[in-house]
Amino acid sequence: MPSLKNKAAWITASLILLQNTFVFAAPIKLSLEQSIELALKNNPSIQIAGEDKAKSLWSVDEAKAAKLPTVSLGSSYNQNDSGQDSFSNNVRMNWQLYNGGRTESQIEQAKLGVTTADLNVVKAKQQLKQDTTTGYYSVLESKNMLAVNEESVNNLKVHLTIVQAKYEAGVVAKSELLRAEVEVANAEQNQIKAQNQYDLAVSSLLNTMNMDAGTDIQLVGELTYQADTRTLAEAIALAKENRPEVAQAKVSIDSAVKGIKIAESNKLPSVSLSASTGWNDTLLPSDDTNWSVGASASWSIFDAGVTKSKINQAESSLNKAKLQAEQTQDAVEQEVRQSYLNMKEAEKRLKTTEVAANKAKEDLYIAQETYKAGAGTNLDVFDAQLALNQAKTNHVQALYDYNINKAKLDKAIGLKVE
């Protein structure tokens, strides 16, 4: 049977293991698709768009209510100077049977509002997908830039070791040693900045996904190049067909047409049906309760030009909607063209930057070996390292720009978000 001391040691070891399990929990691994899924699930912008849609649905019910009768109950109480009390009650029903088509047009206008709200949900999803994709690639870019700076620090530290050995052997002056130490210190400063940029990028992505800022995540993807075979003409055609903004502009035109009909309804007669009943000095209706039923019609013959002004305003709103539709289509086309051309420009840069990075790496190796052999200088090594940093930075930036503009093109053409 184990001793009490052994039991205590076992419990202590178990507690330490359990604590380490929580402290060193594995990070959450996320692909781009999983990140987008989390953002669509958690980001409040989608819920906000959904609430706007719910509000628009209630607006349809509100408009439809105008076709139904309304009932009101009224009561009054009086006391005269002799102290006698009296009270009366009445119930009135009013039903507007016809108002020149105003109600029907208002209902159709409210339904168009629902369509607009639906398209706003689509827009919110597309924008959130792009924001998440941008955040995801920003993390990968900053991760790659951190690796570039870490490599620079390591290369310069290796070179510093060589310079230190040469200095101790009396081959080089102290100024060369100091310069090498300064270069290492500067590189370490850049590494610290790169680490901060990475941390900020992760924080931004977590914010987009509406996750706790302290969540430990690990992205499983890499910045890679995958050719996009879409042509500019195809992209523009898809955008005109799929973009929710284009569809919303068309809905705005339809809504403005309904607005003209609403304004024109004031030129037509309105017909209402009414009924009422009333009784006095009793709480509930009695046998001698009075009641009446009637119908009324009204037709505004002259309203000092109010109706004409409303029609003119509605027609102006229609003209404005048509102009805004043209403007929206032009803006969408320009957005497609800009993202497409930027993507193609980054694609061309990728080919040259990759070659430059490989040559810069070879040049650094030659400079390092030449310096070891005593035929080169400190400056040759530093210049070669700087050129390698720039070449790799350019390649990472080109990869980032390509993927980002490809994602922007997806949004610009209205690519559907599930």
TrEMBL record:
SUPFAM superfamilies, sorted: Outer membrane efflux proteins (OEP)
First-listed, main subcellular location of the protein, grouped into a coarse class: membrane
Sorted UniProt keywords: Cell outer membrane, Coiled coil, Membrane, Transmembrane, Transmembrane beta strand, Transport
Pfam families linked: OEP
Keyword Transport: yes
InterPro entries: CyaE, OMP_efflux, TolC-like
Localization per record: Cell outer membrane
GO CC terms in record: cell outer membrane; efflux pump complex
GO MF: efflux transmembrane transporter activity; porin activity
Transport recorded as keyword: yes
Coiled-coil segments: 311-363
Similarity annotation: Belongs to the outer membrane factor (OMF) (TC 1.B.17) family.
Protein name per its UniProtKB record: Outer membrane protein TolC
Lineage: Bacteria, Bacillati, Bacillota, Negativicutes, Selenomonadales
